[in-house]
Records
---
Amino acid sequence: MQLLPRFELHRPESLAGVLALLAAKPTARVVAGGTDLITNLRHGLAAPSALIELARVPELSGIRAESQGFRLGVGVTLESIADNAELRRAYPALAAAALSVAAPSHRAAATLGGNLCLDTRCVFYNQSEAWRQGNAYCLKYRGDICHVAPTGKRCHAAFSGDVAPALMVYGAEIEIAAPSGLRRIALADLYVEDGAAHLALARTEVLTAVYLPAIDARLRSGYRKARARGAIDFPLAGVAVALRVEGNALSSLAVALTGTNPRPFLLEGTETLLGRPVDDALLTELSKLVQKQVSPMRTTVTASNYRRQVAAVLAARLTRELGAQAGTGIAGK
Ligand SMILES: Cc1cc2nc3c(=O)[nH]c(=O)nc-3n(C[C@H](O)[C@H](O)[C@H](O)COP(=O)(O)OP(=O)(O)OC[C@H]3O[C@@H](n4cnc5c(N)ncnc54)[C@H](O)[C@@H]3O)c2cc1C
Ligand code: SF4
């Protein structure tokens, strides 16, 4: 790790102040908990002229129950999400994902917005400046070749935030503040399949809130991740599942993945599994859907094929467990 580069620190007390600073300072970056950005700055991965701290902006705070669900300000910490009894009851996948991020001291500072806007990761990128210089840099920052796929011109660094897939299976939306005003989009639409530019967010825009719809009491949901170190680590693959059962058959199924691609994404084709019990045949088909749609590359120390297999196994196991809780399907591993 190297010393932090020199930068101005701004601490605006309103959203309008944040937007004005971003518009006025072309190389400024926003910082929330700083648990990702400061590490990256100390690795020499960026040198913004100014940091704009979001901690004092009231529009980004608070967890609020609304008539149609919940509004979460993006400035709330992951600790406060994991500790919130109402969220734990209504959105267990979200609480589990928040609790699985890093260590307690990180979660006390790390915010929801920072987790959703986390930079993508790669073994050739998350290194010191000296290491990257010695290896001729790479396409994502300062270089012109991708060491993972040298013949291509695209970065495959993996999005490794835990919380996004958990929000996606509930159909969460996000609010974005731009100089032209506020807009709301599906969280899934924030992400792009490009490891070097994975957010559909202009430099002058910030996330302000996440909106979770009210949940049917019959919905069962959860989050699981595989990681190299059980106590503290990014997901090699992370899977969120939300399902509903009517009679003995699945009436809804949403599966979202992280850690395998440059973006977290909702699995396509789950509607073909509806109307059936959660049995071995269904879980085999689900595993195949996952294996087809994930595209792990050599961006971690763990083999790509392991990450593909483990994503499929996590999805099948979690779906089996949730199906059993909901009163359909078979018990087992
Ligand atoms: C040892 C270690 C282990 C970790 N393990 C995990 C893990 O297991 N899972 C995981 O998901 N993460 C992990 N992290 C990464 C990080 O701690 C978390 O993702 C955290 O939630 C990031 O939030 P933050 O508020 O600290 O973000 P910051 O570092 O403040 O910001 C991260 C990025 O988001 C941008 N940003 C922040 N807020 C906004 C906003 N409102 N609008 C637009 N852009 C914004 C920043 O400009 C920056 O680019 C780990 C980090 C460390 C150091
Ligand atoms: S995937 Fe390629 S371009 Fe992207 S960070 Fe890794 S080595 Fe660099």
---
Amino acid sequence: MQPYRIADMHCDTIVHHMVYRKDPACLRKNDGHLDLERLKAAGSLVQCFALFIPSGENSLKERKGLSPYDFFQAAYARYLGELEENKDIVRRARNLAEVMENDAQGLLSAVLTIEDGMLLDGKLERVDEIYEKGVRLVTLTWNTENSLGYPNLPDAPDTERGLKPFGFEAVERMNELGVIVDVSHLSDAGFYDVARACKKPFVASHSNARAVYGAPRNLTDDMLRRLADCGGMTGLNFASYFLSEEKVSTASALLTHAKHIVNVAGEDALGFGSDFDGISCALEFGGCEGFGAILGLFEKHFTPRQMEKLTHKNFLRILEACCFA
Ligand SMILES: [Zn+2]
């Protein structure tokens, strides 16, 4: 086994199996990108599990006719059921102390996150509600406009429309409570609004470098520097369509982005946000079992200290800075 523990800021595994595959509970072992048995074997320390709220064209069907808020409740119930079923392997973590406690007992830590703040629907009390439920990171938007702000659409970055007034209020409340603000999918204007307004380090949980590959979902060098200035980080996204023109996602393409991000923003600004079970391309390294191959290549290009940081310590630092309870 490779020697580094792993923290991964983003996967869509829960909703992928619940909605798109219609599988019964299967977090322990499945044939998708990620399951608990393979995570544990790969050396995982923390896995963030996103409750992704489908929006856009087929959303009502994908949400089984439920509102975003009701869909979140259904996905949350599924998540709790998976944790209960697999409590011999995984336990929830809401802060750094819980991660360390779980690890001391040989347990993998699950950090609960939400992809698409649309379920907040302009209601500030819902930030408190999701916090109470254990959510510790919110991706403010996905690919559609919501009550918080505007997304970075696949065809062009939106440089005009950023956070809405409720977006600013929600960011402030997230800072007060201890919920990490995530700008992946947010418009460029929204990124800069968060950089100005956010009082804690923030993250792009699953975004790469736009200078390496010009997808609007990736971050410009200026954005990477701003993120680092705020004490934040970005998580490498494993989707081929955010890495290069190649149809297959490769460890060497990930390395190219990783080296660029470290050169531009420093070694404290990089981590992983695989997007497992949320991406549709071929993966040269397979699913989460492929962390070994990826890190085997990274080790040839980064120092042991840099490897410790990018594999997990940078995310633990963010967790400590943002999530105090
Ligand atoms: Zn995403």
